[in-house]
Structure formats: C-alpha cells, structure tokens
Design brief:
Number of helices: 2
Structural class: mainly alpha
Number of strands: 0
Radius of gyration: 20 Å
Shape: elongated
Strand content: under 5%
Length: 73
C-alpha cells in the first residue's frame, strides 16, 4: 500500500533565525493557501504567548533586582 506524506524537510541557518523562519512560514502558507488565515492566527497566538512569558520573566527579574538592591518599588 502506498504511503503518502506531505512533508517539508528544513535546514535552518541559526545565525539568521528571523529570515529563516520567515521563509519556512512562507513555504508552509504557499502549500496551504486555503488555511493561510488559520495558520497565521495560530502563529500569532504562539508568538504572543512566548512574548508574554518573556515579559513576565523580565518583570520578575526586575522585581528580584529591585528587592535585592534594597530599593522600594
């Protein structure tokens, strides 16, 4: 029985992460034009969640720095 897979083999240059990821996203969207909006919304949520985690960690680090220096916020 035939096995059919729709895959994309990717090699990324990690010295250029933004450019490389942009190309991958473009390739995926080009292969799924009917799902373009769904894909981009999913990416938007994932990126938003990652940024929120970074922001929360930055705020926690800043609070820790302020607490350890004796400053009152």
């Amino acid at each position: 029985m035939a096995k059919i897979k729709s895959t994309l083999d990717i090699q990324l240059d990690l010295t250029r992460p933004v450019e490389e990821l942009t190309e991958v996203i473009s390739a995926v969207i080009a292969s799924q034009p009917a799902r373009r909006k769904e894909i981009l919304k999913g990416l938007d949520i994932a990126v938003g969640n990652a940024l929120a985690e970074i922001q929360a960690q930055d705020e926690q680090d800043q609070k820790t720095d302020n607490d350890s220096s004796g400053k009152v916020s």
